[in-house]
């Protein structure tokens, strides 16, 4: 195995571990955000009542009434999404980047990175959309529905068909495109800047990923 292949494998492993850690840390907030978004709607009478007055109130009420585990309903689908979405995103990004540079031979690498990142984010998010749909369903129903990951997939498919698994794919892909257009170029930029200090080392990859994920997370909360 050559150093380039090893570097990419280490890179992807670090990215995956960091995104999972970030997901675990912020997931209760994501669950409360989802509950707040679905309440008060007229289409589904189950969620017509305004149960929560805000994020803090939602966190407290869910913990008291359903238990702390309810805040992590859907975490299995979120982790699966990160595994599929993240892997496809980075693979697509670098493939598009290489193709674009070869075709146009331009030195404007920043523009290329942003465009390739946005496309990679949209494509990977569209492919992984079923995991996002299932995550939201599990967050809304909580632990009372007692649905497993595969059970929720099956429930959506049986009741809504294939189209149900790709519900909301347009806005989700657009949001992912914006986040990826911020996150991936920042990762590449940070890694290149640290190269003369840290070299092509794990520390370089780790620090660059940390910076990129921080910026990506900030962008995510702005878009929410």
Write up this protein:
Pfam families: Mito_carr. InterPro entries: MCP_dom_sf, MCP_transmembrane, Mito_Metabolite_Transporter. With 224 residues, this protein is mainly α. The chain is 80% helix and 0% strand. It contains 8 helices and no strands. It has helices at residues 3-38, 55-66, 75-104, 109-127, 129-141, 149-165, 169-198, 202-223. The relative contact order is 0.11.
Per-chain topology:
Blueprint: H1 3-38, H2 55-66, H3 75-104, H4 109-127, H5 129-141, H6 149-165, H7 169-198, H8 202-223
GO cellular component, one term: membrane
Family: Belongs to the mitochondrial carrier (TC 2.A.29) family.
Keywords: Membrane, Repeat, Transmembrane, Transmembrane helix, Transport
How many helices in DSSP terms?
8
Proportion in β-strands: under 5%
Q: What's the mean pLDDT score?
A: 84
Helix content: over 70%
Largest sheet: none
- How much is the radius of gyration in Å? 19 Å
The number of distinct β-strands equals 0
- Bulk shape: globular
Q: Ranges with pLDDT <50 over ≥5 residues?
A: none
| Topology as a string of helices (H) and strands (E) | HHHHHHHH
The termini sit apart by 42 Å
Helix-and-strand structural type: mainly alpha
């Amino acid at each position: 195995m050559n150093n380039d292949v090893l570097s990419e494998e280490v890179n992807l492993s670090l990215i995956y571990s960091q995104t999972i850690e970030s997901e675990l840390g912020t997931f209760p907030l994501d669950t409360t955000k989802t509950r707040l978004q679905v309440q008060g709607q007229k289409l589904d009478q189950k969620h017509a009542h305004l149960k929560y007055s805000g994020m803090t109130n939602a966190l407290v009420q869910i913990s008291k009434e359903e238990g702390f585990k309810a805040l992590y309903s859907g975490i299995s689908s979120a982790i699966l999404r990160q595994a599929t979405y993240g892997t496809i995103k980075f693979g697509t990004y670098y493939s598009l980047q290489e193709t674009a540079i070869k075709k146009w031979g331009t030195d404007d690498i920043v523009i290329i990175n942003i465009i390739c990142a946005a496309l990679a984010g949209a494509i990977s998010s569209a492919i992984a959309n079923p995991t996002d749909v299932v995550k939201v369903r599990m967050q809304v129903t909580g632990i009372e529905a007692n649905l497993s990951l595969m059970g929720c997939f099956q429930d959506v498919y049986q009741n809504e068909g294939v189209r149900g698994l790709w519900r909301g794919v347009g806005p989700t892909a657009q949001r992912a495109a914006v986040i990826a257009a911020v996150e991936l170029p920042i990762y590449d930029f940070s890694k290149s800047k640290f190269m003369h200090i840290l070299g092509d080392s794990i520390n370089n990859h780790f620090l660059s990923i940390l910076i990129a994920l921080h910026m990506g997370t900030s962008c995510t909360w702005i878009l929410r």
